[in-house]
Every structure is written in structure tokens, then in C-alpha cells.
Amino acid sequence: MNVGIIAEYNPFHKGHRLHISNTLALTEAENVIAVMSGCFVQRGEPAIADKFLRTRAALINGVDMVLELPVCYATGAADVFAFGAVDTLNKSGMIDIVSFGTEAGDIDLFKEAANLLNNETPAFKAALHKRLNEGISYAAAREGALSEILSRDMSFLSKSNNILALEYLRALDRLKSTILPVTIKREVNAYNSMAMTGEISSAAAIRHSLYNCETDIALSAIPSNCYELLKEVLENKLPHIDLYTDALKYILRTENPQDLALIDGITEGLENRIPSITAFESITELANAVKSKRYTHSRVRRALLHILLDIKKTDIDMTNGVKYIRVLGFKRSKAHLVSELAEKAKVPVITNVKNAPKGLYDKEIFATNMYYMPLSGAVNKDLTEPLVIAE
To answer: What is the reported pTM?
Structure first.
């Protein structure tokens, strides 16, 4: 039996290791296969460590094989992220169960809402549009409409992992997947909490500590076998979205609103609103200037990242899904999983990018090159970095 885990591991921490351990105890699975974001993540930011380091961290802490979530889905809104990740697991042809952490810890809480969202009733549509017309964000409007139609408090959907859990169930249903979903209740700390809570702390809190040079505090929540992996990252410039400010300024000065309107996440006049703000010193400052009651900060960050990476609406296929599966790494003792994947996958499997079908992986190569541009300046690491093989 194989269990799939959807992750960013940004960075890998002790809470992730606990989730893997609890998942194995619950499912009695033989193998853990993770689908993980590459160099950019769903918050609209660069990952704190590159995908190769994060892959190795996962492999030495309980994961048996790591697959890459294509950047177009990894940086998308919750429904896009979830659909791409679930579709990757589904198309692998290898996964029996998918396990994810939630604040709620009860899979049944999500099923009725997922069904309603996939089969919207006239009453739900009316309740949703009423709230949207009041100018609130889509997430808040949807939460309120669900509460009204289902006649129960759905405020738990304001939690990040609960939102993703709902979208995982929707994706499984849309794909008519036979993968069984299970959830593990998150321990101690919420997904996006900035407060360190000892050894089990959120990735957001760990990143916050690293950015504030509180390295010892951050490392207390990271497995000790990851310290050496993070050493290179900590000794150099930490990846941060603001390092890409000059690149974004150049794009905004050379693109017209019609071109920006083609970018994923650019809707409802954002193609005019974003370039109208010319006096900004950082991407963070620009995002703060653009955000509003209707445009949430996270939505704006993702839109700006998509401008930077040239991710267009047409790059995201919510009908046919992912076009390939890339293996980032595996445990040497589980090398047979790669062969099994090649036999069972419903799309091309990439183990060597140089041998990928022409044009299939170009978007990822571009994104990875962008990631390293203000850091090490490395070029074409997707073509030169070997598969991560952990002992």
C-alpha cells in the first residue's frame, strides 16, 4: 500500500516528520510518496530552500519518493494547488491513500461542503453572489454562503489547511479518483502562525525566525539531520520575494495591460491597478498597496509572482490536469518505486530533464532559473542537478 502526501516542506520541520509518522501508524502503508512544490510556493514566494535540498530533507525523514508539483499549480490559489497535487498523485497510478494535516482533524466535516461546491445549487449561488456584491473576498463570501446553506458554522474553513483539505476532497471527486483521503490533526501550531511553540512549530514561524536571524530558535523545530542541508542556505542570502523586485519592475514597465490580463490571477481590473502604482521599493510594498477588501494580500502576492514567472491562465488546465510527472528524488532502498511509476503513470515520467519531451518542462526550467537569479546565479540547475538519491 502506498500513501501520498501533498507538501511544500518550506522548510521540512519536526511537525512534518510527526505527520509522516502518524500517517504510517494510521494507514500501515509500505511507502510514502510526496508531491512537493518546486522553488516557488503557494504563498506567492520563493521557497526558503531550493527543491533539491527540501527533497533530500524529506527523504531522510520518512518519505520514500518525491514528485514535483508543477509550478503553475504550486503557485496557484487553493483550488488550483489542490487539483494539481491530487491529479499528480492520481496520474501516478500508485497511490491508495492521501494523507494531509488539518486544524479540524475530522474528514467528515469537509465532505458535505465539498459536494455542495462541486454541485452548486441555485440557493448557494444566490447566497454567494449576494456576499460578493458586498465587496468582500471570495473566500469570505464562500464561507458565509456555505454556513447559510448548510445551516452550520463553517468558520473553520478560514484556517489554511482546512481550506486545502476541502479542495483536496473536491479534486478527488472531480477526478473520480479511487484514492482514499485521511486527515491527521495538526499539533500545537496553526499553519500560518508566526509564533514559535517549541519543537512543533509552523513553517511560517520557522521562516520568520530565520529571517529575523533567530537561527537557534528556528533550528529547534527542525530535525537535526537537516542542519547540514540548511547550512549553505543560512550562510548565504535567504530567498525572499523582495529580491525579485527589479525583475518585476522591468516586466511591469515593458508589458501593457492587455498582456497582463492574460496572466493567471489577474482579473477584475488588476491589469490596470497594478501598473498604476509606480512608486514602490519592494514587491512587498507593491502588494500592500494593491491589496484591498476584495483583493486579499495572498491573492495579490500570487498574481505578482505569476507576472514574474509569466504564468498565464492558459498554462493551468483544470480539466485535463498535469502533463507530466517529474521525480525529484527517492531512497536508494526504494528505487523500485521509480520503475513502478514509469510503468503505471498515465502521463510521461521525467527522471532526467535533458530527456524530457521538447517544450514539456520549459516553464519549470524558467521558474528555477528565476529562483536562483538573485541568489547564487546558477543557471539551468534543472538540467544539471542529478536526481536526489538518499541512503
So the answer is: 0.94
